[in-house]
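Page 37, top half.
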Amino acid sequence: MTEPHDLTALAQAAAIAAGEWTSRALVEHHLNRVAALGDTVGAFVTVTADAALAAADAADAVPVSARGPLHGVPTAIKDLTLTAGVRTTFGSAAFADFVPPVDADVVRFIRTAGLVSLGKTTTSELGCSLYSEGLVAPPARNPWNLAYTAGGSSGGAAAAVAAGLLPVAQGSDGGGSLRIPASMCGLVGYKPSRGVVSGGPVGFGAYGLPTSGPIGRTVADVAALLDVLSQPVPGEPYLAPPPPPAGGWLAAARGAAPGRLRIGRFTTPMLADESVHPDCVAAVDRAAALLTAAGHEVVEVPPPLTPTTWPLFEIVWYVLALAPVPPERESQLLPLTRLLRARGAEVSAASLTATLGELQAQVRLGAHRTAGCDLLLCPTLAAPQAPVGWFTEVGDPAEDFDRQRRFSPYCAIFNVTGDPSVSLPVGVTADGLPVGVLLSGRQGADARLLATAAQLEQLSGGWDRHPAIWRAPDSANVNTTSGVGESSA
C-alpha cells in the first residue's frame, strides 16, 4: 500500500491540490516518522512540530488557484541557515541556544511558496567538514546502512530525505556539502551556478564558494525547489546568470532533451593524488554509456584543475572558518574547527588576496582545458562510503582534514569555478549502497544541466529507490550499527 512518504514532493503537492490529502495530514505523517526515526538517522537538531502544524493549516486555507507547485509540502531548513525565531546552532555547542532575529532569504522564499518546514536539519560545525557529527545532535547516519555517515555538511537533510522523513529539503554547498551527502545517500544534490540563489540578507558572499540549493529523490523535485529558492534579490555580491526559460527550472527538467552535447569525462582526482574506488569509476562508466546511447559525444578530457589547487583552496577554507564566535565559547568548538580557525587567523590580508588571484588564474586555465565541452562527468567521491567516526578516529584534526581532502577530491572545484554541479545516484556497490556521479555544466547553463540530469535519470530507469528503513514502523526495529538497506519501489 502506498504511504504518503512514498510520494515525491511534486506528487504530494498534486495530491493536496486534488483534495486527496491535506497539508496538515501530510505534515502529521512526516512528523510521526521524524519522531520514530529522526534520532536514529540523526536528521534533525530541532523539530518545530507546533509551528509546522500551524503552517500546514494556513497552507490548506490558501485557494487552489493561488498555490505553487510545492504548496503544502513538508520540508526542512539546514541548521546553518538563519531562521527567525527558531534555534539555529550552526552545528555547534557554542551556539546551542542561539535564536536568530531574521530569516535567510531562502527561508522567506520557502515560506512564501507554501512549503512547511518541520525544523532544522543536522549539519557539521560551522559547515567546516564533509561529515555531520557534532555535539548538538546525534550523528547524521546513512539510511542505507546506519554504520556509515550521511555526509555533510548537509548530512541531516540527506538523511531525512533518504529515510522518508521529508520528500525534499534545503541545504547548502560550499565545497560539496549537498553533493557529497547526496552521493552517499542515493539522492540528487544540486549546487546551482554562482548567483542563482541569494545568500542574503547578511554575509559577504564568502568569495563565491557557498550557495543554498536543493536535495531530493528526483531531478524534477530538485528543480521545483530550485524554482522556489532562486528568487532575484537586489544587492547580491555576484551577478545572477540569465533567468531560467519560461516555466522555470522545473520546466527545463521536464522539457525536451537537451540535444546532442559534448561531454568531457575524467576520473583523475583534482584536489589530491588519490586512488579512486572501482565502484566510483564504474558509476562514471555507466553514466557515460547511457549518455552515449542517448546520442551525446562523451570524450576523455584532462581534469580542469589539479592538486596544485589544493594549497590555495585550503587557505580560503581556513579563512571561511573564522565565523564570529563569542570568545568565551571558543573552547566549546570541536578540535577540527579550532584547527581551521587557528590556521585562518594566521592568513594575512595580502596572502588571502594573492591566493584569490591565483585561484582565479587557475580557473581560467581550467576553462581553457575543457572549452570544447558542454558538460563534465566525473566521480562525486573517491570512495562510495565512510563509516561514522572514520574521519575523527585517529584523534588528530590535521589528519581528519587530510582524510576529507582525499575522500572528496572533486566537488569543491566547482565551488571555486562557480559552475552548476549535480550529484546523481547512477551507481551501486556490491553491497547495495549508492554511488554518485558528478555532472557539471558551464556557469549560468543550469537549464541544460537539469535537462541532461533528467534525461540520465530516465535512461537509468529512475532513481527513487529506498532503503529498508523506509518501511520501518519505528526506530526500535532498526539496527543502528549495521544492516544494509534493501531497495524498495
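Page 37, bottom half:
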Amino acid sequence: MNAIIAKRVDSGTPDTSEISDLARAAGYTVVGEVTQTRTEDPALGMGEGKVEELAVLSEQLDAEAVIFDNRLDPYQTYNLGQKLPTGVEVIDRFTLILDIFGQRAQTRKAQLQVELAELRYELPRAEAKTSLAKREERPGFMGLGEYDESREQDIKKQISNIRDELERIEKTEEHRRQQRRESGFDLVALAGYTNAGKSTLMRQLATDLDVDENEELHPDLDSTAKSEDRLFTTLGTTTRKMEARRRDVLLTDTVGFISDLPHWLVESFKSTLDQVYRADLILLVVDVSDPVEEIREKLVTSHDTLYERNEAPIVTVLNKIDKVDAEELDEKRAALSALAPNPVAVSGQEGENVDALIDRIDAELPDWEHERLVLPMTEETMSVVSWIHDNAQVNDVNYGDDDVLVDFEARPTVVEQSRSKASDLTPAAESA
C-alpha cells in the first residue's frame, strides 16, 4: 500500500526518519514525502499550498494514504480528505501507532491495551459529535460520522470495563512477581526506545530455557525473544531466565518507548510499563550509533518516563558499539556523561562486552543478607536445607548430632522466610 509522508514543524528542519520507519512497520510502502516549516494552519495543519502539492503528488505516485507525523483533529482530517484525491486515506501519527499496536497484539493483555488506546482516541471525537448535535448542527458533514447519542456513553463504559479487566491481570502479574521474589529471583527489566536492540541484547543475556520444565513455577516464561530490525517487535512482555553469576535473575523485555506519545496512549499501556517500574534493576538501552543529540533527547525522555514512578537503580547500556569506532564511542560517552555517568558499552549483535554487563547487573542488584541458621534435626529439616539451597547462595552446611548449621546469603525476603521455616521446625519428642 503506497503512502506519502507529510510533516510540519514550527521551526527547524523536519526529520521524517521515524515516521517513515513507523509507516513501513505498519506495512506501507513510502513513495514520497512533503515537509513544511511554519506554524500550524488551524484548518489543514499544513499550508494550503503544501496540501495542494500533496494532492498532486498523491495522484502522480498512486498513493493510497497520506501519513502525517503530526496530530490532526477531526476537522483537519476531514478538510484534508476533501483536498486529496478520492480514496486517499488521511492518517495521523497516533492512528498509525494504534494500527501497528493492533497488528502486533498477541496476548489478551496487549489486545486490551490496544483497545483501550483506541477508545481513548475515539472518545474526544464522540464528544465533538455530541457537542455539535446539542447545537443542532449535523456533524456528519465534518467527517465525524453520523451522530449516535449513545456512542459516547458506550465508549466510557467500555473503557471502564477494560480498566477493570487490566487491573485483574495486573494483580495476577503482581502476585507472580512477588512469588518470584520470594523464590529468590531478582527482576531486571530492559527499557529504551524501539530499535535500540533490547531483544537482541536479551538473547545474549538469557539462558536457553526449556519452558516445559518451568511451566508450573513460571507459566509465562518465553523460550525465545524475537530480534528483528523493525519497530514494536515486542509489544507485550517477554520474560526469560538470565545467565547470572551467583543469583537467580529473570529478565523482562518490554514495549519500546517512542517519542511524542500523547498522555492517553502512554496511560493505555501503563500496566505493561509496570513491568519496568516494579523491577529491581532497569537496563536503559540506547543505540550508540544514533547522533549524539538524538541519544541525549531519548535519554531525557526515558528518564522522565522512568523516574515518574520508578525506584530501582538504572544502568545505561550503550548498545551497537559494533557500528561505531573507539574514538566516536569515547566522544559520545563524554557528551552523555551527565545523563549516563557510568554506562556499559556492549554489542548485543556480536556479544561484545556482555560479560562486563552481567558483572554490572550483579553489582547493582539489591544487596543480599548474610545469615547463619541453626536448624534442629527433625523429619522436615532436610527439606528446609534443600529449600535454602534452591533459593539462596549456600556457603557452608555443618551437620551435628542434634542440629544443622547453614551459612548462606540471599535476598532479605528469602532470609526472612528461612527464619520462619526454621522456627516451625519442632524437634522430635525424646523416647521415654
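Margin note: The domain at 2-91 is CATH 3.40.50.11060 (Rossmann fold).
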